[in-house]
Every structure is written in structure tokens, then in C-alpha cells.
């Protein structure tokens, strides 16, 4: 990651909410896109295998269904249903609805960032609709 600094990370523990601490970190849109490309390429960066392809497959496999929107859930990734028309895809969201979506079948990586320093938010429904509109607007070979 080109822009990432260790100072972009912070530890947070709230014992009343969970027995597990949280490790928050910040990523630029460029680093998010690179991370998405790494997943889209099954863990390869150029000729270098950074993440085992088996891990990419395992972590982006749906193990449960989110009853709110019907998407599946893998290891920290939401899994887009195949019947959605977007193909085999997955995404992760963060504070303020930062979004990293990977649509390998169409070779698309989508990144959406918001200025959370100024408490800017966008609704999940709006960003989800935008993700689907972009995915559906692609030109197929």
C-alpha cells in the first residue's frame, strides 16, 4: 500500500459492547483500489503471489445471509448474490459508507470514500444503488 502509515491505525476497546477490541485504520482511495485489485487477481500482484488464492476464495465465500438485503457474508466481505446480475462479486463497507467492491467477472473494482473527518455520511441504500448502477452499466466483451 502506497499511502498507508502505521499512524493511520488505532486500537479501541469498549468492554460494554464487546469482549473483542477493534483495530480501526484509514486507507486512501488509491490503497483501497489496490487492495481490491489484489483480491480481484486472486492474491497476485504482478508475478508475486502475496495472498494464497485459496484464502481469497475462502474469505469471499458466503457462509450466512444478511436478512436486510439478501447479500451473503464471508470473512469480513459481503457477498453479492449471483442472481443480482453483477456476477460473482463482493464488497466491504466502513464508517460513513466507505465502499470497496470487487466484481471479478467484469474486472471492476469500485471505491467510494467519504470525508468522515467532517462527519459526512451517505446512506447505505444510496451507495448500494450506485454500486448496482455502475455494475449494470458495464460493457460486456
Note down, in words, how this protein is organized:
The longest helix has 13 residues. The strands form three sheets. The chain has a six-stranded antiparallel β-sheet with strand order 5-6-7-8-9-10, sandwiched between helices. The chain is globular and about 50 Å long. The chain has one domain: DD-peptidase/beta-lactamase superfamily (Beta-lactamase), CATH 3.40.710.10. The protein is 23% helix and 26% strand. It has three helices and ten strands; from the N terminus they run ββαββαββββββα. The two termini are 31 Å apart. The mean pLDDT is 86. The chain is α+β, with helices and mostly antiparallel strands.
Approximate helicity band: 10-25%
- Main pleated-sheet profile: 6 strands, antiparallel
Secondary-structure element order, as H and E?
Answer: EEHEEHEEEEEEH
Structural classification: alpha+beta
Name the poorly predicted regions: none
Provide the number of structural domains.
1
The CATH superfamily is known as DD-peptidase/beta-lactamase superfamily
Organism: marine sediment metagenome
Pfam families: Beta-lactamase
Protein name: Beta-lactamase-related domain-containing protein
InterPro entries: Beta-lactam-related, Beta-lactam/transpept-like
